[in-house]
Amino acid sequence: MKKVLLLFLFMFFLVGCDSTNQADTKTDIQTQENENPTVEAKKGTLENPYTVAEALNIIGTKTEFSTEKIYVEGIVTGKPYFNTKYNSYSVYIADSASGKTVQVYSATLDSSLGSAKPEAGDRIVAGGYYTYYAKNSQPELGGSAAVEYPVIYKIIKGVDSSSSEFETYEDDGRATESVMLEFTEANKEAYATVEENSWFWRKDNFVFENSAGEDRIKEVVNYLPYRFYVQSIIYCSVKKGTIKYLEFTTDSHYGFGGDEQITNGKIEVVSNTLTRVYAKKGYNKIRIRNQNDIKNKKQIRVISIKVVYYV
Questions:
Q1: Is 268 helix (H, G, I), strand (E, B) or coil?
Q2: Does residue 111 share a domain with residue 205?
Q3: Rounded Cα gap, residues 6 and 303, in angstroms
Q4: What local confidence, expressed as pLDDT, does residue 163 receive?
Q5: What span, in angstroms and rounded, lies between the C-alpha atoms of 311 and 306?
Q6: Burial 198-218 (b: 16+ CB within 10 A, else e)
Q7: CA-based end-to-end distance of the chain
Q8: What secondary structure letter does DSSP report for 250?
Q9: What gap in Å lies between CA 128 and CA 37, rounded to an integer?
Q10: 6, part of any domain
Q11: How far apart are CA 56 and CA 137, in angstroms?
Q12: How many domains are contained in the chain?
């Protein structure tokens, strides 16, 4: 009986020691986990990209290319431009439909994307070297002969459902501001400049650019009212805020036809002297191409542009 009792006490001692060891081991593991929490990837990397707002703070107005590459995530705010020569895409991205933008200029697609292509409303992650392109007052990821062009690494399809909604002429209750750009000789010296093959008019918050090309730039500069020739392109943008609509006053014999190609906007020909172009909601830039080639009407003569925008 004494031997049985001693055997029982010995087994109880072993079980107790094992339980204590297990508890000590568990405590040690928990201590190690607390001392070594999961480390989040460094900000501005492919795994943890900057938001557009964060990228804008970093880019600032530095006109030299950065020496380090950053990665930025944002929503594509307009129809991407595809360059067939370089097989690249140029897109504007923002944190929301009404947010400020970073341009991803002439970016190639990472091979992991397969057949996916960026479209308005998609969320993308792009990486590249950054600069502030002073000519267009636009922060961008870009490239040059000496700097590697950006790459789009991720495309999440269709996250922004507002990309097909247009502004209207009616008041929607939001405060707006406006600026009038009149194409007169008096304003020409004050507001107009020629840079390479583009003609720029800048007034307050508004930038108007005609990319006429070398063969037409002299004609564009020398004749007023402003002559919007067939197959040329104009860009209208606000440096701060987003466009509600543009209101064009034109010569009665040289007005809009209604079949002009509009990117990020919708055209309404009100009369032979008045045309409005409504922006897609949240966009700060509208591109218009004059594709009208009717006999004796190879130009649109613009007297003034009124720009109504949200700040």
A1: strand
A2: no
A3: 110
A4: 52
A5: 16
A6: bbbbbbebbbbbbbbeeebbe
A7: 94
A8: E
A9: 30
A10: no
A11: 12
A12: 2
Q: Are both 199 and 289 inside the same structural domain?
A: yes
Range of the structural domain that residue 138 is part of? 52-163
Q: Is residue 293 part of a domain?
A: yes
Does 289 reside within a domain? yes
Cα 142 to Cα 164: distance, rounded to the nearest angstrom: 27
Q: Could you give the count of Cα atoms lying within 13 Å of 175 in the half-sphere of its Cβ? A: 2
pLDDT of res. 19: 47
Neighbours of 232 (CB within 10 A): 21
Percent of the chain with pLDDT over 90: 47
Of 110-119, 204-213, 281-290, the range with the lowest mean pLDDT is 204-213
Residues 279, 238 contacting (CB under 8 angstroms):
no
Phi, psi of 134 (to 5 degrees): -65, -30
170 Cβ contact list (under 8 Å, min separation 6): none
pLDDT for 143-157, tens place per residue?
999 999 999 999 988
Closest-CA residue to 289 (of 183, 202, 210, 196)? 210
Tell me: do 68 and 142 sit in the same domain.
yes
The verdict on 159 and 227 lying in the same domain is no
Question: Domain boundary residue among 132, 163, 194?
Answer: 163
| Residue 32 within any structural domain of the chain | no
- Residue 113 phi, psi (nearest 5): -80, -10
243 sits in which H/E element: strand 242-250
- Does 297 have pLDDT greater than 90? no
- Rounded distance, CA 292 to CA 45, Å? 46
Q: Are strands 177-182 and 123-133 parallel, antiparallel or unpaired?
A: unpaired
pLDDT higher than threshold 70 for residue 35: no
